[in-house]
Amino acid sequence: MHTNNEIPAYENIFILSNGQFKCGDQSNESRIKFFENGYRKCVKCDSDKIIKTEHKAACRWNGDAYGTDVFICNECKWITSFQWDEGGDSPYYYETEYFTKKLNN
Ligand SMILES: [Zn+2]
Question: Which pTM value belongs to this model?
């Protein structure tokens, strides 16, 4: 599923000024676990029924878009989000750059 410029009412939503947002479980503990399992398994109930919804915030002049992906477990409704950016040298989910550094140190 892919939606443009429209932010639904997710749990614990925090909207950033550029149109990206964070929602659901934003704890490092959960998000690092989810990152390590490849965004495939719920960190609360271990289900692999994860539904990803991509939200595009905007496009830059060069065509690179940025936005937020929301991941919801279809079993227990655990939810988290990761911000993405098609541009730059950082990973697509650029918040995970910090996770990798943390894991390597
Ligand atoms: Zn779950």
Answer: 0.88
